[in-house]
Structures are given as C-alpha cells and as structure tokens.
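Hi support team,

I submitted a single chain yesterday and got back a structure, but I'm not sure I'm reading the token output correctly. Could someone confirm the output below corresponds to the sequence I sent? I've pasted both exactly as they appear in my results page.

Thanks,
R.
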Amino acid sequence: MIRFPAVLALVLTLFRPSPALAQECPDLSPYFAGQETRGQVEWLQVAGELNDFLPLCLESGDYFALVGAAWLNGGLLPEAVEALERALLLNPDNGAAQIDYAEALFRQGQLFPAIELNGQVLQRPDVPANLRPALELRQEEWRGLTRDTSFRGDFLLGYDSNLNGAPDPGQVTLTIAGENVLLALGEEFEAMSGPYTNLGLTASHRRLEPGHQHNYTAEIQGRVSDDRSTDLLQLDGRYNFLRPRRTRSWQIDSGFRSLAFGGSALFTAADVQVRYSISPLFTCRPFFDASAQYQLFHNQSWLNAFDTRLGGGFACPLGDETESFGNVSIEAALLDSQKIKFDRPGGDRGGWQVAANWQYPLPQGLFRAVINHTRLEDGDSYSPLLDAGAPRWVNRSYLLLQYRRGMLFNGAPGDLLINFYHQQQDSNIGLFDTSDTTFEIGFSFGF
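Hi R., thanks for writing in. Yes, this is the structure output for that exact sequence:
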C-alpha cells in the first residue's frame, strides 16, 4: 500500500500557488527541501517549528498544507486532518493538500471519501507526469479494497448416533376400527449410528459501496459414511444486501438450498428474509425480522409448502468495562406453514420458536453456544390411523456447542473446529419421536 510523503515541495513549482498569501507569513521554501529523507521524528520537529509561525500565517493555505503534511508524516492523524481541512478551506484548489487529505481520510477508515478525492486530483490537468502513476496506483489499490473474493474448504470427521434420522421407538401404535394396534417397525426404520466425513467448499464475494454492502455466497457440502443410503449433499446460493448505520441498520437476505439424501433429490427451497435493527436500548440492540420460504419436495409433492416467519429479539453485550462475558442474542418468532396441495398430511401448520445464541471470546479461540426450541401444530388430522386421527404436534429442541480457534495452514489462515450437537424431538405421534447426537472435529481453511 502506497503511503505518500508530504508533497508540498511540488506546490511552488507544480501546482499553482494560493492567490495571495499574507505578507507577514515567512518564506516556507526551506521546509520543502529534504522531505523524502525525513523520518517521523524529523517531521514532528518541523511541525513544532511551524507552529511558531501560526499567528503570522492564519491566511496562508500553503502554510496549513505544510503543517498538515508534517503532522501526517509524523503519525498524528487528528492534527493532520484539522490542518489539511483548514488549508482546503482557505484554498480548495490546493493540490498538495488534496493529495495529503485523501491519504488522511484513508488512514481514518473513510475509504470512499478518500477514493473520491483522489479521483478528483487525477482529473486535474496540472498533475505532474511523474506523480500521476503513483496516484493512479493508489486509486487502484484503494478500489481493490472494495472488492474481495475468498474461498474456504472444510474437512471434519465426526460420529452421528442417528445417521438416517430414524424414530426412537421400535414400534408404532395404529388406530384400526377404534382399537390401538402395535406395529413393529422394520430394520430400515432403526437408527443407524457410525462415523462420517463432512466436506465443504465455499466461495464468497463481497462488494462495498458508499453506505451499503453486497455479499454473494455459493456453497457445496457433503456428508459421507459407510452406509451410502445416509449420504447427504447440499447446495446453497445466497445474496445479502446490508445497509449499516450507527443508529439503525437493515439487510435483505435471499437464496436457495437444495438437499439430496441417499443419492436422491429430497427438496429444494427458495427464501427471502428482511432484518431491521434500531438504536440500542440501554446496552441491548433490538432487531426484527420477517422471512418467507417456498419448499419443493421432488418425490413427495404433497409435502410442498409456503412457510413464513415473523420474529424479533435483542442482541446484548455481557459484562462491564472491566470484564466481558461475550455477547448474547435472544429471539422469539411466530411460524406459519401453508400447504400447497390439499392432500398434505396435517394440512396447514402453525407454531412458535425461541432461540438464544451466546458467543464468548477465549484467550485462544471463540466459544459459541446455541439453544433452540420449536413448537409446531397441525391444523388437521395427520392420519386417521395414527393417534385416533388427532392433529399432530411436534416439540423440537437442539443444543449446539462449538469451539473455533484460528490457525495457519501452510501460511494460509484457517480454523480448528470442534462441534457438539444434540437434537430431541417429541410428538403425540410416536413415529415422529426422534433424537440425534453428533460430535465432530476438523479444520476450515481459506485459500
């Protein structure tokens, strides 16, 4: 990254001088010589010497441009910004001050104002030929910071207690002619446990614009085990639009997901979500979100559905100024699932969901805990053969514990990942009682 030294030596010969300097201001040309060889300490000494001339040079744009350059190269950014702004107020056409002020804006983190000002300098017809290539290179490098493309690979080894998502009981109760009959389930309905390998590849692209941000993500993820009938393949594509503000922010997230299980396409879903957060109340920032999703089941079209979700919550830091216990977000939402075809078992569904997400930074790594509970109730009978034709209800809870630690893999950044996941689902229909526990360890690395 180019960092420009003070360029005031060019002011007298390469840029037109200020229209009229105050007569009392002394000749500043001795300070223009030897700029390239000065170190930070020498620049601070120059700034101190120039400060003695302040009462005499209050109307000199070139004086404040030189003072700003001295502070900038001396590493005192706030003082540099103040002096350079005053130089441009006295003479908005001061090219040297424009160049240094663009650099000061960049060091302040104001990337887009810096790019805009540097572009204005490049449009000037009096920019010296020997200076233009450096300014163009600086512009190219700064613009490059607004675009970022990255790739990430995941490799994890794990163990799953229920690879096939089988129900807990080995038998199910049927209601036939008003009588309950126990029916033993076949081996294909028994839970299969075993080790697995999880592989993933993600491509991300971020584009920054003044006041907002665009994010694009494509991901492919697969799980393979000894029993190929339980293999998973998932494809995801997402777009995210983010407009952050100090007092409020909002974002739109949309995308699709396609899932194959056991070598056969299971379902594809497309969704859109809007999230809005407002100014903090005390220490917590409230947020609200709404989402809609269309689910298409490839081989079971009667399960197709249109789901909506409306929720809100708080994101809060934990601890005080002396000790931090991380951040926690708590959220609650109402759920609704509308059938697409009239013969979907259970008809329309409704319910609610609560979740908590805690992240705690450790001396080496990050710990994360997520707990989630969902309640869904069918509007109609799921089947006259199950629970005497009663509408089905389902309670589903899960716990996720994750430890992530940054590491280097052959010089490339990555993470060590350790995940523990447990899910418990209960229902008035035993066929939907299920539990699942997984543990996995592996690596995520960028390239």
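A quick pointer for reading it: Confidence is low (pLDDT under 50) at residues 6-22. Let us know if anything else looks off.

Best,
Support desk
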